[in-house]
Amino acid sequence: MALVANGIGRSFRRVEVLRGVDLAVEPGEFVTIGGPSGSGKSALLSILCGFDRPDVGSVLIRDEELDGAPSWQRCAVLPQALGLAGELTLAENTALPLLLTGSPEARSRSVAVLAELGIGDLADRYPNEVSYGQQQRAALARAIVVEPAVLLADEPTAHVDHASAEVVLTVLRRVADRGTAVIAATHDPRVHAVADRRLRLDKGRLVA
Ligand SMILES: Nc1ncnc2c1ncn2[C@@H]1O[C@H](COP(=O)(O)OP(=O)(O)OP(=O)(O)O)[C@@H](O)[C@H]1O
Asked: Where is the ABC transporter domain positioned along the sequence (predicted)?
């Protein structure tokens, strides 16, 4: 399995948001997580990528238990808040995970991934010089440039127009088909439509 979560529980200010979440995702599988606003989708993704720790339960990525945030190659994230560095261009932001691995073709690979997402012409612009939807696609480019074992995407189509959403969905599907386990939290029926498996958070548990 690419990712296994066992009995994840998490409370905030005594409100139990997650109560025993179990999840197992295979390499190459595309899973969506739905559920109403406030049901705990982002909270769950934060735990799956090691940004937050559960009160109970464990997460394994490629059979290794998470202890803090794993490397970007094991688990890459498209967060809801994007988190692009404002002082770096889109190409430089996208290249960051490759620079950490010492890849010599960081620039060319980043521009290629930006182009795959339809924003190759914006590679040398800074985040504040492009729209929020374009920033979102750059944050997705940064997440997939290293071909991670697991990709966690929080609302990957939330800020993009219809045509751009189609591009994002095609790329997410392609990333899964190349072997990455993709887990996307979403309200968007178009994302659910391209997934292999659709789950929903209901009263703190994942249900089909
Ligand atoms: N760090 C935190 N401190 C306190 N409460 C939190 C924290 N993180 C999440 N919560 C609470 O947990 C619940 C679930 O929040 P979460 O953001 O995971 O929902 P969501 O399903 O992702 O919602 P949305 O669809 O609006 O993004 C909410 O009631 C939220 O207020």
From this structure: 3-207
Give the chain's domain count. Answer: 1
State residue 14's pLDDT score. 87
pLDDT, tens digit, 9 for 90 and up, residues 61-92: 999 998 888 888 999 999 988 999 999 999 99
Cα 57 to ligand 1 centre (Å):
19
Contact 172, 164 (CB under 8 A): no
Find the CATH number of the domain harbouring 52: 3.40.50.300
The range of the structural domain enclosing residue 147 comes to: 3-207
Spacing, Cα 154 to ligand 1 middle (Å): 12
What pTM was computed for the model?
0.94
Q: Is 39 in the pocket of ligand 1 (CB under 6 A)?
A: yes
Query: What DSSP character marks residue 187?
Result: S
**Interface confidence: ipTM more than 0.90:** yes
Q: Please give the number of the atom of ligand 1 that sits closest to the Cα of 43.
A: 18
Report whether residue 186 contacts ligand 1, using a CB cutoff of 6 Å. Answer: no
User: Of 50, 52, 55, 123, nearest to 90 (Cα)?
Assistant: 123
- Distance of alpha carbon 127 from the chain centroid: 19
Ligand 1 lined by 74 (C-beta under 6 Å): no
Does the pLDDT of residue 153 top 90, yes or no?
yes
